[in-house]
Amino acid sequence: MDQYDVIIVGSGPAGMGAAFTIAAQKPNIKILILDREKFSTGGMRNDCKMNFTFPIGFPVEYWTEGVANRYLEQVVDFLKPDFLNQTNIETYQKRAERLGCSLLQIRQTHLGTDGGLALIKKLLAQLADLGVDLALGEAMEQVNPAEKSITTEKREIGYKALLVAPGRKGFHFLQDVMSTLSVPFVDNIVDIGIRLETRIEHYPIVKDYYDPKFYFPEKVRTFCTNSGNAHVVKERYATSRGDQWLSVNGHAFAPDFRHDNGLVNFAILKTVRFTAPLASGQAFAENLGLQASLMGGGKPLMQRVGDFRLGSRSREESFSKDLYDFEPSLRDCCPGDISLAMPAKILRAIWKAMKNLDTIVPGVLHPSTIMYYPEIKLYANKPTYLDEHFKVHEAVWFAGDGAGTSRGITGAWASGIRAAEGILETL
Ligand SMILES: Cc1cc2nc3c(=O)[nH]c(=O)nc-3n(C[C@H](O)[C@H](O)[C@H](O)COP(=O)(O)OP(=O)(O)OC[C@H]3O[C@@H](n4cnc5c(N)ncnc54)[C@H](O)[C@@H]3O)c2cc1C
C-alpha cells in the first residue's frame, strides 16, 4: 500500500490552497493530490473571475469578515491578482438604493477560460516542483477510517491526514464519505434562477464593472457576469438514481477585441432555504432540473423577454437574426415558456428583480434579451464541523464548495488554507 502524510482529494482551488500552504511550511512532508479529471473542473477553468471582497464566496455561517479578510490577504499575496478598474459605481449605487436594492463594490480580476487554464497548468507545475505528487485522472472511491486509508479505482493509499475537497460536482461522493464517517450534515439551501443574455449595449454597466453584484429584495442577486467573448454553456448533472438533468452557466474568454461577440450573460438567482419536512435542497433542485429537461426535450429552455412579457412561449423563429439582431450563444436549447417550468414564487421574485435591474441599468429588458432556464447552484452539504479548521473526523478535513465552506474560487482557496492550518497542527 502506498503511504502519504497528507492526501488531498481535488485539485481545485481548495485543494491547491491547502497543498501550497502545507508544502511551504513542511517541505519534507509527503503530499499526494488526487483528481478524477486531468485539470480541476470548476471556475478556475471556466471564465476564472476572482472576487477578493467579503462576503462574496464566503458563507457567513463559517466566516466573519475579519477571519475572511485575514485569509483573503494570503490568497492575494500568493496569486498576486491585477484588480480590474471600476468606474461610475456611485451612479448605479444611488439608483439601486432608491429601489431598495444595492450594488456591492468588490475587488475583482478576470483571466478568462483560456487564462484560467494557463493558471492551472502553472500552479500544477509549481506543486510538482515543490515535490507534491499529482495523480490526475484518478478518483477516490472510499475511505477506511480505521485503517487510515482510501481506495481509488487503481490502488489503496494510506494517510496521516486526509483533506477531501471534491467541489460541488462531488456532492454525492461527499455524502458517501460522510455516511462512512458518520458525519451529520444538512443540505437545505439551493439557488434557483435564470441566465440572461443580451447585447453589451443593453447592459453597458459591464464596461464600468466586469461582474456587478446587485442584491434585490427576496434574496435575489446577480451572479457570474461574463462579457466580451462570452458564451452560455450547458452543464450536465445526474441524480443519485442516475437520471440526467441540465443547468446552464456562462463563461468568457480573456479580452481579445478581434473575437468579441458583443454579448453579455449573467445569472439572476434566488436563494431558497427549506424547512422541515423537506430536508434536501439538492433533491428539490434536481426535480426542477428534471422538469425543465422534460419540457425542453432533454435541453434547457430559452425564451426572449419580448415573448415572456406577452405571456407567449418562444418559438424557433424567435431566435433568428431576422427577428432580433443576435442569436443565442447556446444554440442547443429549446425555445419555450419558462413560466410553465419554474415555481411561481421563485419566478415572481426574479421577474421583480429583473424590472428593478432594468430601472438601474435601462435597456437590459430589451425584447431581444434571452432568458435561459434553469440555472441551479447546489449549495452543497453542510457537515457538522469539529473545529474551525473544518475537521470532520479523526485525521479527516473537508474544504471548498462541496463541503459548504466556500462559494467561489478565492473562498475555496482560503478554506483550503484554513483546513491546512488544522492539518499542520496535527502533523
Ligand atoms: C462553469 C463554472 C464557472 C464558474 N465560474 C466561476 C468564476 O468565474 N469565479 C468564481 O469565483 N467561481 C466560479 N465558479 C465556482 C468555482 O468553480 C468554485 O467556487 C470553485 O472551483 C470551488 O473550488 P473547490 O476546490 O471546492 O472545487 P472544484 O474547483 O470543483 O475542484 C474539485 C475537484 O475535485 C475533483 N473530484 C471530485 N470528486 C473526486 C473524487 N472522488 N476523486 C478525485 N477527485 C475528485 C473534481 O474533478 C474537481 O477537479 C464556477 C463554477 C462553474 C461550474
TrEMBL record:
Identification of the protein by name: FAD-dependent dehydrogenase
Source species: Sphaerochaeta pleomorpha (strain ATCC BAA-1885 / DSM 22778 / Grapes)
Signal peptide extent: none
Stored Gene3D superfamilies: FAD/NAD(P)-binding domain
Top-level taxon in the UniProt lineage: Bacteria
